[in-house]
Design a protein that fits this description.
heterodimer; A: 116 residues; mainly beta; seven-stranded mixed β-sheet; four-stranded antiparallel β-sheet; B: 115 residues; six-stranded mixed β-sheet; 12 strands; 0% helix; 53% strand
Chain lengths: 116, 115
């Protein structure tokens, strides 16, 4: 079974630009979550999508948004990039058959975003 | 609000030593889940274990073992006879049952195993 895939793996953008990151979950997984990982703040939850609906959202500004498609694939978008948005963005999927909060998550390799 | 503390930022050991990674959590909820994940240099977090708040049984899986103690709000992870391949950053995480699902991760402990 293929794991979680994320594209692109590396990205360099300039301040003020916008970026879209893509995540394909494990087949059959209905929940997709996004995280931002930085040396300073650690691993922070961005948002979670379940059946094309944003179910939960972390404490990030509105510049960070996402969506999920009917095939469970997800994208996240960051508009008006700032230097502080440089980070590893991780996507994780889980089975969530019963919307169980305790599902383990399976992570992708991440997208390394550098904002200059 | 919940909190997860991994006080050990970095641990360095020599191969075959035993090592324990500490995790202390805070929550007012009585039903919650605790996790450990491993992040090797490749960057991909790998799920290791899940424990719900009603199951305080310790667990052993090969060289890995976990000690969950509600009385001290700790969920510690021990690697016996460490190997170089164990070198990674290990994260402890907490999620609550029901309601808003926003997992809280600790800052991680970087384990370096020297040959």
């Amino acid at each position: 079974k293929a794991g979680v895939t994320q594209t692109p793996r590396y990205l360099i953008k300039t301040r003020g630009q916008q970026v879209t990151l893509s995540c394909s979950p494990i087949s059959g997984h209905r929940s997709v979550s996004w995280y931002q990982q930085t040396p300073g703040q650690g691993l922070q939850f961005l948002f979670e999508y379940f059946s094309e609906t944003q179910r939960n959202k972390g404490n990030f500004p509105g510049r960070f948004s996402g969506r999920q498609f009917s095939n469970s694939r997800s994208e996240m978008n960051v508009s008006t990039l700032e230097l502080g948005d440089s980070a590893l963005y991780l996507c994780a999927s889980s089975l969530a058959i019963y919307s169980e909060q305790g599902d383990e998550q399976y992570f992708g390799p991440g997208t390394r975003l550098t904002v200059t | 609000a919940q909190k997860v503390t991994q006080a050990q930022t970095e641990i360095s050991v020599v191969e075959k030593e035993d090592v324990t990674l500490d995790c202390v959590y805070e929550t007012r909820d009585t039903t919650y889940y605790l996790f450990w994940y491993k992040q090797p240099p490749s960057g991909e977090l790998v799920f290791l274990i899940r424990r719900n708040s009603f199951d305080e049984q310790n667990e052993i899986s090969g060289r890995y073992s976990w000690n969950f103690q509600k009385s001290t709000s700790s969920f510690n992870f021990t690697i016996t006879a460490s190997q170089v391949v164990d070198s990674a950053v290990y994260f402890c995480a907490l999620t609550l049952s029901g309601g808003s699902y926003i997992p809280t991760f600790g800052r991680g402990t970087s384990l370096i195993v020297h040959p």
